[in-house]
Amino acid sequence: MRHIDEPGLSQSFFSQANKGPLKKILVVDDWGFNIMALKIILRIDCGIDPELQIDSANDGRQALSMVKSNVRENMMERCDYEFILMDCNMPKMDGYQATSAIRHFLHVSGLPQPIISAVTGHSESSYV
């Protein structure tokens, strides 16, 4: 398993953002502070422009809607979100349900799967 903080991984993934269509990141969390913190980390550590490359959703249902809308805007040919940071515990639809729904939608649409990484403040084994 590779981690985003592994030397070269974040730079190699995000340096490709300037080649071809702009890669986008979707940050999904029900706490605004966490969204802001993740945007700062991605800007400082990875050189991501939050205004151009990062969208955010407040729960899993909104994230699923944003992915579907993005695919429809792209005439069902692609999804611009290549990396999704997904909180595990959220109201309306949690991160597990949202991840499953996003993966299913993209699969039946015949589109590539984005990297979806779980984000949680819990360290208990039942959450990891």
Protein model, in words:
The structure is a single chain. This protein is 42% helix and 16% strand. A 4-stranded parallel sheet has the order 2-1-3-4, with helices on both faces. α5 links the parallel β3 (81-87) and β4. It has helices at residues 9-15, 32-46, 50-53, 60-73, 95-108, and strands at 24-28, 54-57, 81-87, 115-119. α4 runs parallel beside α5. The protein is globular and about 35 Å long.
Note the run of SSEs as H and E.
HEHHEHEHE
Helical residue percent?
40-55%
Largest sheet: 4 strands, parallel
Rg for CA atoms:
14 Å
**Distance N terminus to C terminus?**
15 Å
How would you sum up the global shape? globular
How many DSSP helices? 5
Query: Structural class, judged by helices and strands?
Result: alpha/beta
Low-confidence stretches: none
Kindly estimate the percentage of residues that lie in beta strands according to DSSP: 15-25%
Overall pLDDT, averaged? 85
Strands, total number = 4
Strand order of the largest sheet: 2-1-3-4
Primary descriptors:
globular, alpha/beta, 4 strands
Q: How would you summarize this macromolecular structure in one to three sentences?
A:
This protein has 128 residues and is α/β, with parallel strands linked by helices.
Fold topology:
Elements: H1 9-15, E1 24-28, H2 32-46, H3 50-53, E2 54-57, H4 60-73, E3 81-87, H5 95-108, E4 115-119
